[in-house]
Amino acid sequence: MPAEAQAKSAGVAVARDYYDSSDAIEFYSTIWGGEDIHVGIYDDTRDIREASAKTVDTMAGLLGDLSDARVLDIGSGYGGGARRLVTKHGARSVVCLNIAEEENARNRKLTGEAGLSDRIDVVDGSFDALPFGDAGFDVVWSQDAILHAPDRGAVLDEVARVLKSGGRFVFTDPMQADGLSDTGALQPIYDRIHLENLASFAFYREGLKARGLAEIEVQDRSGELRNHYARVAEELDARRDELSASDAFVDRMITGLGHWVRGADEGRLTWGIMLFRKA
Fold first, then answer.
1. The predicted structure's pLDDT at residue 279
2. Tell me, what DSSP letter sits at residue 231?
């Protein structure tokens, strides 16, 4: 196997093994929000779950009427975003694509309990090799997942391929600041996610334009990255006795979350909501 392919395969395995670990599952399901494990918007709340739902609602608000839309959620986690898209925003159907099998099992369980299995499918797979035909989706949706891709360009290739003409790509991602020359301060974050770097607003703008997607709206909401990681760290520390994970695991998580908070405070990290349309 070529070195590039080996690195890509290793990166996929790292992400899968982490998100399928019992400690990670307990942390995300108990502390981070239960159903939606993504960065929240804290305009009028300090509650992690409410803030996470606000992100879904804000993204969906950019899309308008979804009653005829077939949506693909890449990196769908526990499927909270997909279920909210169907129940609150009227999406006709959502396909959840995710690499972590334990997360997918929980997604299927929660979706079944909500009576939504006829409108939400959960597929095991990687978003850099989507198991779908060309031009099959009206919307591709993603929340804070593409940062984990060893080859983000391959993800953008796949998004462009599966979108219909006129289809839209709406997503969020934790990123490094545009034009950041000194990335040494972010090395602890890179090490933690086992990748060499993060993307940026410029990376996505240039990469999607090159693939025939036009920018519709980009909202820089970098302050929410700091807000979210700080709130999760605070909640984790306050509720550590509720977890079966060791104190060492909790302390490592709090340290890791602190790296994100500091990176945001120093202006090295960004986050936002991005909407593009395929020609």
1. 96
2. H
Q: Where are the alpha helices (DSSP H) in the chain?
A: 3-19, 22-27, 48-63, 80-87, 101-113, 152-162, 187-193, 201-210, 222-238, 247-265
**Side chain identity at residue 110, one-letter code:** L
Q: Note the pLDDT of residue 242.
A: 85
Q: Judge if pTM exceeds 0.70.
A: yes
User: Among 106, 100, 164, which residue's Cα sits nearest to residue 132?
Assistant: 164
Other beta carbons less than 10 A from residue 196's beta carbon: 11
Which of 264, 262, 238, 236 has its CA nearest to residue 249?
A: 236
* Pairwise CA distance, residues 64 & 61, whole Å: 6
Nearest to 38 by CA among 72, 68, 82: 82
- Nearest CA among 230, 193, 235 for reference residue 30: 235
Tokens of 91: 């999406």
What's the length of the chain?
279
Backbone angles phi, psi at 169, to 5 degrees: -120, 115
pLDDT at 241: 87
The pLDDT assigned to 27 comes to 75
CA distances from 171 to 30, 84, 111, 277 (A): 24, 15, 22, 12
User: Is residue 138 classed as helix, strand or coil in its secondary structure?
Assistant: strand
Q: How far apart are the C-alpha atoms of 124 and 130, rounded to whole Å? A: 10
